[in-house]
Amino acid sequence: MKNITASRKRACITLAVSAALVVTAAGCGSSSSTAKSSTGSASLWMLQDPTNSVSQSAVDAYNTTGPGKVSMNVIATDGYKDKLRTAMGSSAMPGIFFNWGGGSLSDYVKAGKLVTLDSDLISHFLPSALQAGTVDGKLVGVPSRGTQPVFLFYNKKVFTDAGVTPPKTWTDLVSLVPVFKAKGITPFAVAGTATDSWTELMWIEYLVDRLAGPDLFSKIAAGDWNLWSDPAILKTAQMVKQLVDSGAFGSNFASVSYGAGGTSTLLDKGKAAMVLMGSWEYATQQAADATFAKSGLGYVPFPSVEGGKGNPADVVGNPTNYLSVTTSAPSQTAEAFLKTTYSDSYVAGLVAKGEVPVTTNAKAALAKAPDPTYAMFQYNLVANAPSFTQSWDQALGLTLGTPLLTVIQKLFNGQDTPEQFVSGVLAIKH
């Protein structure tokens, strides 16, 4: 899934550290260890983003009092992953680096490039936001930016005029389709162009979670690709087909793009009643029409699915972005710097930028958010989520995630039946 804010086991080196953060080479399988310098200079790679001013302030403050020094390098979005991959295989490996968690970390963990972060860090963050920073049960990524859950946005006036309320269950959702169609309004805006199929992925992710729970995809992402044959996958594809055939997404969504001029404009102008989107939709609407964003834009969690095994409080999306530590970083320097990611000043800085941090001390700071009500909605959604499944395309990485989006698009466009969808996804890895 697109990230608008921008984005296992070999070495057994026990690093000398103190207090809150103990870092060991990820995947350490024996008790042998070698000492390593605990202080010194560490390079920090960050992806280009407006919140980098918050990170720079943290670096500046750290460098006046912390052990060692941290130098921040801002890398352009285009080519970031390739540049990082090249650096990680050379002597120019950064000490600390920005990432999306999930699949983007797995290869580095397998190669023994990352260190495992001490469990004491866990108490400072919302549990569901740490899942994508954990590989093989080892914490290798600490949250560094805001959260981006996916949920339903709706046009309040369109709902009021139709005399209906936002859906709480799948039955509610399906029943709204003919209501809005009768008024000439597209029930759900969705972007179906070739580059925007990640918006269709959101429907698949939530339905699989609601039907089977988060463990099914978790096992798939861990390597059991044959689980795409699980009955919940086929059921999901059938439910999507039913929505498409009923006109829930309109008749020309294959030519609709995401954002201003596309799905966001359809919602803003009342030509669509709802859109399933990440929390960044608010910022998109605010940039286009601040009045609508503040007064006319509604939002609710994705509905429950009757008979499903999944918890309706589960969330999908981008839990957050992460900072990971490599084996090249001086341990005490890394230890002290990572503490800045949950400091009051860092959290306040993110909130001022419109972010919703996933730290346990963020709730009080959200009173000063640009829209406190919206910020608290997001925070509570994530804080109360038993599971926060990372966007599948991020969790699987480019090699598997990209062809998955292609197969999903064929399902939405009616090129593949639900059965062909299942076989098409299974064929990606065979």
Automatic annotation (TrEMBL):
Q: Which UniProt keywords apply?
A: Signal
Top-level taxon of origin = Bacteria
Recorded hits in Pfam families, A to Z, give: SBP_bac_1
Q: Which PROSITE patterns match?
A: PROKAR_LIPOPROTEIN
User: Could you say which residues form the signal peptide?
Assistant: 1-25
What PANTHER family is this protein classified in?
A: ARABINOSE-BINDING PROTEIN-RELATED (PTHR43649), BLR3389 PROTEIN (PTHR43649:SF14)
Could you tell me what this protein is called?
A: Extracellular solute-binding protein
Instruction: Please give the organism.
Output: Streptacidiphilus jeojiensis
